[in-house]
Amino acid sequence: MEKFIFLYRGKDGGHGGLSPDDMQKHMEKWQAWMGGLAKQGIMGDSQPLKPTGKQVSGTKKVITDGPFIEAKEMVGGFTVVNAKDINEAIEIAKGCPIFEVDGKLEVRPIQKMEM
Amino acid sequence: MSESNDNEVNKMVDHLFRHESGKMVAVLTRVFGFSNIEQAEDIVQDTIIRALESWKFGKLPDNPQAWLYRTAKNKAIDILRREKVKHKIVNDIAPLLKSEYTLGFKMNEMFTENEIRDSELRMMFACCHPSISHEAQVSLILKTLCGLSVKEIGNAFLTNEETIQKRLYRTKEKIKTDHISLDYPGADAMQARTYAVLKALYLLFNEGYNSSHPQKLIREDLCEEAMRLAILLTENPKTSYPHAYALLALMCYHASRFAARLDDKGFIVLLQDQNRIQWNKFLISKGNEYLNKASEGETIHDYHIEAAIASAHANAPNYSETNWNLILLLYNTLLSRTQNPVVQINRCLVLGEVEGHEKAISELEQIKGFTENCYYNTSLGEMWMRLSKKEKAKPYFQKALTLTSSNAEIELIRRKLLACN
């Protein structure tokens, strides 16, 4: 088993054009999806991120306000998932409801650091 | 607010607190894990204290139940967010409780009716784990699922608070050392565990029904709780075995006689003297309905036979028109499966109705090792009374009088003794 991190990209919440009812249904799909991951025992830490924050950068540690990139590229949250390999991780990712609102899911294997 | 109104509110709240605290403890134990049961109990305790503080001087909320659930849920969520607590949670829903995506949603779901019932069932099964003694099982069920305090449990078992406190403490330690979980037993162990649960509910009901406890209210509460939990079992397809229905039927028949069993002074009224108008017709019809469902399976359990006996009594128009032959047959069947002396005594009393009281006496005399039992002696006394042999009956009643500490029983035996003179 390998660990992967799923990065959810795309504007969180206001999925343009969704009615409150649609939003609720969408949210319930997320719950069901994560419920499924938990049930299979492959779900690790999983947290949503606020769309705001600060960025500290460079040798001068300059502080700027976020968000930092355009809304559809912004990371809205992450989930750690256990899978056999990248292909299985991708198959798992395909079940994510983010695609219903034209979002993106980035599948990144966690690097084991050699000492 | 007048004093009587105030009392009404207190009563309503008491009832609400007792019932809801059992549910909340079940749900929160499901969330935190069986070995963290104290955490669940603490949250429920805090919730109830807060409710008392907020409601005492103000108005009750429109939906007190929802208020309690919301408060308990929010407290639980705060605690679940602590890193120290997170690593202690190792159950199947742990990943959902540790993620901010799902924590609130999952906790809402846990307080829905279906999930509450599921938590109660899991708790019932876990409390009846084979490594926990029968005594401790019943105490634990009363504490966790029925919302009784340690004092009330001590009261119900006619023992002191300390004894129950120790028993519960030891049981909780056992849960931790044996890693007893709230998972349902596997399919192969399910039936055996259901037997254990039914046995505990049977004991719980009998504790209420047969105990010589001076307070009627406590006894009825115990019976009511046993029936509520038995209904939970029958409503779930995983556990709705025919023998669960049989036990529930038995409880309904017995409970139908609650009002008729004691007179207005609190003295015991024997079956033949009970006013059958006072028998609860609704409970008898429920008993019939459940007994019908109990007969769907292939196997027969003692509860089936006991329920059938209770049914013959409950459905008889009066004492003399009781189907004694059928009841005797059922007792013979029961005795071929168990050597319980109380069943033996009861069978002899029925034999007295079918084959005469001399026969009953001679068979009673053959039961060995029971001469120091109160019920054995009153039974022999009663059989001699039926034969109008007062001088033979008297010594048995005199002996029985020395063998009980229950006021209601003492009074009944005194009356019998008076009739002997």
Summarize the helices and strands and which ones pair or pack:
The complex is a heterodimer of chains A (115) and B (421).
Chain A: E1 2-9, H1 20-39, E2 43-48, E3 54-57, E4 62-65, E5 75-83, H2 86-93, E6 104-109
Chain B: H1 3-32, H2 37-56, H3 64-80, H4 83-86, H5 94-98, H6 103-110, H7 113-127, H8 134-144, H9 150-156, H10 161-177, H11 187-210, H12 216-235, H13 242-256, H14 258-261, H15 281-294, H16 302-314, H17 324-337, H18 341-355, H19 357-366, H20 374-386, H21 390-401, H22 407-420
* Greatest chain-chain contact: A-B, 17 and 12 residues
Overall strand count of chain B: 0
Residues in β-strands, percent of chain A? 25-35%
Oligomer designation: heterodimer
In percent terms, what proportion of residues of chain B is strand?
A: under 5%
- The CATH superfamily of chain A is identified as Dimeric alpha+beta barrel
The general outline of chain B is elongated
Mean pLDDT of chain B: 90
The biggest beta sheet of chain A reads: 4 strands, antiparallel
Q: Give the helix level of chain A as a range of percent.
A: 10-25%
- What is the N-to-C succession of helices and strands of chain A? EHEEEEHE
Strand order, sheet with most strands of chain A: 2-5-1-6
User: What class would the helix/strand composition of chain A place it in?
Assistant: alpha+beta
